[in-house]
Amino acid sequence: MPPLCLLLCLVGETGAKRVPKIPRCPVTCSCTKDSAFCVDTKAIPKSFPPGIISLTMVNAAFTTIPEGAFSHLHLLQFLFVENNDVQALSKHTFRGLKSLTHLSLSNNNLQFLPRELFKYLDILTDLDLRGNSFRCDCKIKWLVDWMEKTNTSVPAIYCASPFEFQGRRIHDLTPRDFNCISADFAVYETFPFQSVSVESYEFNNNQFVAFAQPDTGFCTLFVWDHVEMVFRMYHNITARSAVYCKPVVINNTLYMVVAQLFGGSHIYKWEEDPQRFVKIQDIDTTRVRKPNFVETFQLDDEWYFAVADSSKAGSTSIYRWNSNGFYSHQSLHPWHRDTHVEFLDVEGKQRLILSSASQPPVVYQWNRSLRQFAFHSQITETFDVQMVKHFWVRNVLYLCLTRFIGDSKILRWEGQRYVEIQTLPSRGSMAVYPFTVGPRQYLLLGSDFSFSRVYLWDDLTQRFQPFQELNMRAPRAFSLVSVDNKDMLLAASFKGNTLAYQHLIVDLSAK
Ligand SMILES: *[C@@H]1O[C@H](CO)[C@@H](O)[C@H](O)[C@H]1NC(C)=O
Ligand SMILES: *[C@@H]1O[C@H](CO)[C@@H](O)[C@H](O)[C@H]1NC(C)=O
Ligand SMILES: *[C@@H]1O[C@H](CO)[C@@H](O)[C@H](O)[C@H]1NC(C)=O
Ligand SMILES: *[C@@H]1O[C@H](CO)[C@@H](O)[C@H](O)[C@H]1NC(C)=O
Questions:
Q1: What residue spans of 127-236 are helical by DSSP H?
Q2: Average pLDDT of the chain, as a whole number
Q3: CA torsion sign, 91 to 94 to 99 to 105?
Q4: What does the alpha-carbon distance between residue 398 and residue 455 come to, in Å, rounded to a whole number?
Q5: Confidence at residue 2, expressed as pLDDT on a 0 to 100 scale
Q6: Residues of the signal sequence (predicted)?
Q7: What pLDDT score was predicted for residue 143?
Q8: In this predicted model, what pLDDT tens digit does every residue of 260-302 receive, in sequence order?
């Protein structure tokens, strides 16, 4: 506020009058009554003679312009900051320049301009941005938007990068040319226990998750609290060495298949009055000796579950629902130490993919007339596959094969066989999880010896691209839950807290 300062500056400590000190022309500038022309300036001078309406700065030694650098020059109408090496501006660089009609930042080294840079320049008629090296990405989306609407005249400017936009006239771009929506997985809720399985299910219009906790000896259920917006402890089922807690809702009744390493595996039924789980069935321990995983599926309108058995003597077994209990339906190959079983329906054929410690993954196919699964094929030559999961992208089927060490693999179904299209490094990977949020196809590859990694499917290359690293300790299972407009990724952790991550949409152009 120069006028106020001038008045106060007249009054010394003794009150004696002094000669008013009118700011002089800065040493690097030459001034006339209403203009200043500055060359080789090291910093923007703090004071100028009053009445300056035109300021020019060329060959300046500074590369950034701080916030409010010109705020003491509110009479300024013309500002030419040209032929310098300015690389960055603060969002509030031009704050206070209410009278500015002409602004030039031409021939600098600007790659982008902060959002709302010109917001308070209400009467700006001419803006020269030529001769910069603009990077046409999300950071200038606002500029494209602004130029489309403003009445300020802006001579043509061009993109210097990225490659696909090089040489394009920025006026010709539209906000739609920028894909600025990204995402972030952020920890939302921490559960203070270790777990090895996580499954989500809906029951009685509520959203639940079930965790297997071998060290505390429970299958623990949490329910989503729509008011507090968190998962809240709901119920425990005692299960001394639970490795998998698999919910299945049949005919509005909730059943829980509780697979245990010791003491056999059991099936529980939820009763409403009083609210409790009642054990309705034991699973034959001569078949299932060392369960590792439970899969449920529907086939010809009937419910089944399959328990992958990882012992030498046991075998992966299939059970079928029969109005009041699960009946042993079929035992698949014994002696193979199966780690995982995945159900999928391909072109009307129902298949199970078995991952085993003893051999590469194999496919069993449903034979409708026999009502049995029969050996169909081997997928690849790859050994040591912990888990095979499938996913679809635009009606094309893909598999991901997790290996503990070495490379995990992505295969594409090509009508007759699976073809390997990508490898992903495994650093102690026990679990993989393909999932979608809106149009985005992700793959999460768990890791014991490094960060777990989220990959995002890229439609252009038809491959996964690394997307985000997540710090989990020995992840064993994942599950996506969407409730109250939140997309949450739950991660069972064998050696740390169990975690829920929220998938947040991020607009990269909004910074
Ligand atoms: C541009 O000028 C027109 C006509 O004077 C006016 O209606 C419009 O509001 C102006 N646009 C902006 C963004 O100032
Ligand atoms: C379940 O068990 C945990 C661990 O012992 C305990 O903290 C929790 O209160 C139990 N929850 C219910 C609903 O019984
Ligand atoms: C569903 O439950 C009802 C009531 O308990 C029973 O009458 C019906 O048979 C059940 N249906 C099936 C397919 O199990
Ligand atoms: C089902 O099994 C029967 C008996 O082995 C066989 O003849 C038939 O071809 C099989 N069906 C299919 C679709 O594979």
A1: 141-149
A2: 92
A3: negative
A4: 15
A5: 44
A6: 1-16
A7: 93
A8: 998 899 999 999 999 999 999 999 888 888 999 999 999 999 9
Q: Is 251 in the pocket of ligand 3 (CB under 6 A)?
A: yes
Give percent of the chain above pLDDT 70. 96
pLDDT given for residue 120 in this prediction: 85
* Ligand 4 pocket residue status of 32, Cβ below 6 Å: no
| C-beta 370 within 6 A of ligand 4 | yes
Predicted confidence (pLDDT) per residue in 17-30, tens digit: 566 677 889 999 99
Q: Whose CA is nearest to atom 3 of ligand 4?
A: 370
* Positions in the chain short of pLDDT 70: 1-20, 511
Q: From the alpha carbon of 367, which atom of ligand 4 is closest?
A: 1
The answer to whether 143 touches 135, Cβ cutoff 8 Å, is no
DSSP 22: P
Candidates 252, 141, 199; CA nearest to 511 is: 141
pLDDT digits (tens, 9 = 90+) for 390-435: 999 999 999 999 999 989 999 999 988 999 999 999 999 999 999 9
Q: Which atom of ligand 4 lies at the shortest distance from residue 369's CA?
A: 1
Ligand 1: residue whose CA is nearest its atom 8: 151
**Distance (Å) from CA 133 to ligand 1 centroid:** 29
Residue 46 Cβ inside 6 Å of ligand 1? The answer reads no
Written as one string, the DSSP assignment of 347-366 is TTEEEEEEEESSSS-EEEEE
Q: Domains along the chain?
A: 2-177 (3.80.10.10), 179-193+379-511 (2.130.10.10)
Spell 160-187 as b/e; 16+ CB within 10 A means b: beeeebeeeebeebeeeebebeebebee
Sheet holding 218-225, edge to edge: 197-203, 206-213, 218-225, 230-238
Ligand minimally distant from the alpha carbon of residue 249: 3
DSSP 8-state secondary structure symbol assigned to residue 119: T
With 0-12 / 13-18 / 19 or more C-beta atoms within 10 angstroms meaning exposed / middle / buried, residue 456 is middle
Query: How many Cα neighbours within 13 Å face the side chain of 481?
Result: 29
Instruction: Tell me, using a 6 A CB cutoff, whether residue 252 lines ligand 3.
Output: no
pLDDT (0 to 100) of residue 17: 56
Q: Is the CB of 35 under 6 A from ligand 1?
A: no
Which residue lies with its CA nearest to atom 14 of ligand 4?
367
Q: What is the pLDDT of residue 20?
A: 64
